[in-house]
From TrEMBL:
<comment type="similarity">
    <text>Belongs to the peptidase A24 family.</text>
</comment>
<feature type="transmembrane region" description="Helical">
    <location>
        <begin position="80"/>
        <end position="97"/>
    </location>
</feature>
<feature type="transmembrane region" description="Helical">
    <location>
        <begin position="7"/>
        <end position="29"/>
    </location>
</feature>
<feature type="domain" description="Prepilin type IV endopeptidase peptidase">
    <location>
        <begin position="111"/>
        <end position="212"/>
    </location>
</feature>
<feature type="transmembrane region" description="Helical">
    <location>
        <begin position="155"/>
        <end position="176"/>
    </location>
</feature>
<keyword id="KW-0511">Multifunctional enzyme</keyword>
<keyword id="KW-1003">Cell membrane</keyword>
<keyword id="KW-0489">Methyltransferase</keyword>
<keyword id="KW-0997">Cell inner membrane</keyword>
<keyword id="KW-0812">Transmembrane</keyword>
<feature type="domain" description="Prepilin peptidase A24 N-terminal">
    <location>
        <begin position="15"/>
        <end position="96"/>
    </location>
</feature>
<protein>
    <recommendedName>
        <fullName>Prepilin leader peptidase/N-methyltransferase</fullName>
        <ecNumber>2.1.1.-</ecNumber>
        <ecNumber>3.4.23.43</ecNumber>
    </recommendedName>
</protein>
<feature type="transmembrane region" description="Helical">
    <location>
        <begin position="126"/>
        <end position="146"/>
    </location>
</feature>
<keyword id="KW-0378">Hydrolase</keyword>
<dbReference type="InterPro" id="IPR014032">
    <property type="entry name" value="Peptidase_A24A_bac"/>
</dbReference>
<dbReference type="InterPro" id="IPR050882">
    <property type="entry name" value="Prepilin_peptidase/N-MTase"/>
</dbReference>
<dbReference type="Pfam" id="PF06750">
    <property type="entry name" value="A24_N_bact"/>
</dbReference>
Length: 254
């Protein structure tokens, strides 16, 4: 009986996460176009027709409509159900880590915002200020609900990566975007200085591998969005930072 209740609970958490993922799709599409995402029903990007409620069910509707608009038949990007699926899985994973708690809410809110940052940066090579401001909310709440990170560590984290990034951007054109710098400042306060360094290392490692691949392809456009890899590093550090750092120090008997 308890197992059945637990399955129902996890299923409920997944559905909530997928629904929020559907909202994230709206934010990702509308924010760069400066369209309000707080009002108005969803519409088809191709024909502009409002999407019916029965055709707007997360994940399910994509397969129900066979990946096409019900009105104009235009192809619907697979990215929409994938974001809904990933958000639902993220909700379950964080629920498994934190259970029914405000820590889950803070971590999930940060993850949802970082998904938006990732996709918009991929699309536009920019990180909207509004999303960085939104990230300040879970970052500030983390001070109360993740007390294991001290206030001094948080203030050091605010500058330990963002300040060097700013210096590099001033002396080396296009070294880092302003959005990347502001993102790491807010993330630094949320994570503390140790996990901020870890997040940056992960971002540089993965982003560097992607950059090398792009250079090897000898494409004309060598620019790439760095924010998505920083976001991946931030989420990894938020969820597993202490475990990774303790494991690394343990290799040296520290």
């Amino acid at each position: 009986m308890l197992i059945f209740i637990e399955i129902i609970l996890y299923l409920y958490v997944f559905v909530v996460g997928a629904v929020i993922g559907s909202f994230l799709n709206v934010v990702i599409y509308r924010v760069p176009k400066e369209i309000s995402f707080v009002g108005g029903r969803s519409f088809c990007p191709s024909c502009g027709t409002q999407i019916k409620g029965c055709h707007n069910i997360p994940i399910f509707s994509y397969f129900q409509l066979r990946g096409k608009c019900a009105d104009c038949g235009a192809k619907i990007s697979l990215r929409y159900p994938l974001i809904e699926l990933c958000t639902g899985l993220m909700a379950i994973f964080m629920f498994a880590l934190y259970g029914v708690s405000l820590q889950w809410l803070v971590a999930f809110a940060a993850g949802a915002i970082l998904i938006c940052v990732t996709m918009i940066d991929f699309d536009t090579m920019t990180i909207p200020n509004g999303l960085v401001i939104a990230l300040m909310v879970p970052a500030l709440l983390a001070f109360f609900f993740f007390p294991q990170v001290g206030i001094l560590s948080r203030f050091i984290g605010l500058f330990i990566v963002s300040l060097p990034m700013l210096a590099l951007a001033l002396f080396i054109p296009d070294a880092f975007g302003g959005g990347d710098i502001k993102l790491m400042a807010v993330a630094g306060f949320m994570l503390g200085w140790q996990n901020t360094l870890l997040a940056t290392f992960i971002g540089l490692l993965i982003g560097g591998a992607v950059a090398v691949t792009l250079l090897a392809k000898k494409t004309k456009d060598k620019h790439m969005a760095f924010g998505p890899y920083l976001c991946l590093g931030i989420m990894t550090a938020l969820l597993f930072g202490d475990i990774i750092i303790n494991w690394y120090l343990g290799l040296f008997g520290l």
